[in-house]
Amino acid sequence: MTATPTPSPNVVDRTPESVIIRPWPKVVFLYPTFVVSTVFFLFGWLDVVPADTLGNIWMSVFLLNLLVFSFDFSRLWSIVLVFAIGLLVVLILWLDLTGFVGNALGKVSIPYTPSHYGFMSAGLGILLLIVWINSRFHYYEVNAREILHHHGYLSDVTRWSTEGLEMNKEINDIAEYVLLRSGRLIFHPGSSKKAIVMDNVAAVNRIEKSVNDLLSVVAVRLNQMPGPG
Description:
This protein is α+β, with helices and mostly antiparallel strands. Helices cover 49% and strands 17% of the residues. It contains 7 helices and 7 strands, in the order βαααααββββαββα. It has helices at 31-46, 51-70, 75-95, 100-106, 114-135, 174-180, 204-223, and strands spanning 18-21, 139-143, 146-151, 156-161, 166-170, 183-188, 196-201. 14% of the residues are buried.
């Protein structure tokens, strides 16, 4: 007869009892513009940096930030875009023998006032705060037995069993991944024909690992349960 090893009391099980997953709307990817607007409001109020310098930098950041909403930066598209921009810059520098492009860019001046930065900072800040509050009421929770979708401000809950659960991770947009390490998680519950799709999950790799650890530990525990004597 083989004795079943007893777990040491000094061993701490660090596997979480549940994993919280919060899909975010795309507006959260505007946080770089919010941060720059807040910092530039302080700079403009203190008058420590020329207004046209702040304006040019802010507009560049804002336009680059909008690219996240304009294209899906797949791995191939991102590589092509980087090479295309590099070739365009080299071509412009090579053709600009008279210095026309440099002079034209040097004359660009967008002297926004501190009120502009303050308004953008306050507006985006309020919007992001509303999104954060809403995420406290709309989220998914994965535990050992089921997936729970908490939704609505009256604590409505939809449940799916984790039995036969399959999970897929997709990172289709490199820009979104760079900004928030975000991606898509797709759950296929064995008890449902409809997949559960969660877009814009921040720190998606960490969330995926936590769910895998949770479900694998549960599976091991079930396999180690003693059978009938």
